[in-house]
Design goal:
About 25% of the residues lie in helices and about 15% in strands. It is of the alpha+beta class and about 210 residues long. Strand 5, helix 2 and strand 6 form a beta-alpha-beta unit. The relative contact order is 0.17.
Length: about 210
């Protein structure tokens, strides 16, 4: 397309240019030609434009965060209500804040479900008892609050060129212990000092049993 040898062509600022001249083609122009191959320079060249590369980072990324959960517990029924949830995460440089916030929202919803609702149970013969959503409790809109999400604390990752860190599972990791600890704290503040541990899921039946010894 540029009528030049490969060695004379450089790629800079999104375009291929013949060194020392003003002859250039943008990446978009070349991609278009690659998929409309009526004027290919070589008959043996197949249509299309593909490139694959693999990046092997020098180390893992280490995001950090702190989650705070507020719950109310009805001592008569053991019902737990999540009143508020605040997430503060350091994901390094955030490329797309909306996607990151959505991932945290989804992860926290998943973690609340794990902490309060979801349970795989079997009978004495090994028969699965919670094999459908009629029996397996999933978190719904009424089970989760509006979240407060913050990722204004930024410590750039030092061993990748973007300074980014992982964020996809942060919400699901931080939320279960925050919820369970909030339930234990609420019970102890309510006078039930003997309650120091409840296995997940912290269902109303388990909370009621813990309250009543």
């Amino acid at each position: 397309m540029l009528e030049a040898a490969e060695g004379d062509i450089v790629f800079e600022d999104g375009k291929f240019q013949v060194t020392g001249t003003d002859k250039a083609k943008t990446f978009g122009e070349i991609a278009f030609s690659a998929y409309v191959p009526h004027n290919y320079p070589l008959e043996t060249l197949e249509p299309g434009l593909e490139e694959t590369s693999f990046y092997d980072p020098a180390n893992f990324t280490y995001p950090a965060g702190a989650y705070a959960c507020e719950v109310e517990v009805d001592p008569e029924t053991g019902q737990v209500s999540v009143c508020s949830f605040t997430c503060a995460d350091d994901f390094g440089n955030v490329m797309n804040p909306m996607i990151v916030e959505g991932q945290v929202h989804g992860g926290v919803g998943q973690g609340i479900g794990q902490a309060l609702l979801e349970n795989t149970s079997y009978d004495e013969n090994g028969q699965l008892l919670s094999g459908s959503y009629m029996d397996y409790a999933m978190p719904r809109a009424e089970d989760v609050p509006f979240y407060t999400v913050d990722h204004s604390c930024v410590t750039a990752c030092t061993h990748n060129p973007l300074g980014v860190k992982g964020c996809g599972e942060a919400g699901a990791i931080g939320s279960p212990p925050a919820v369970v600890n909030a339930v234990i704290d609420a019970l102890q503040r309510g006078g039930y000092k003997h309650v120091k541990h409840i296995d997940m899921p912290v269902s109303p039946a388990r909370v009621w049993a813990a309250i009543n010894g």
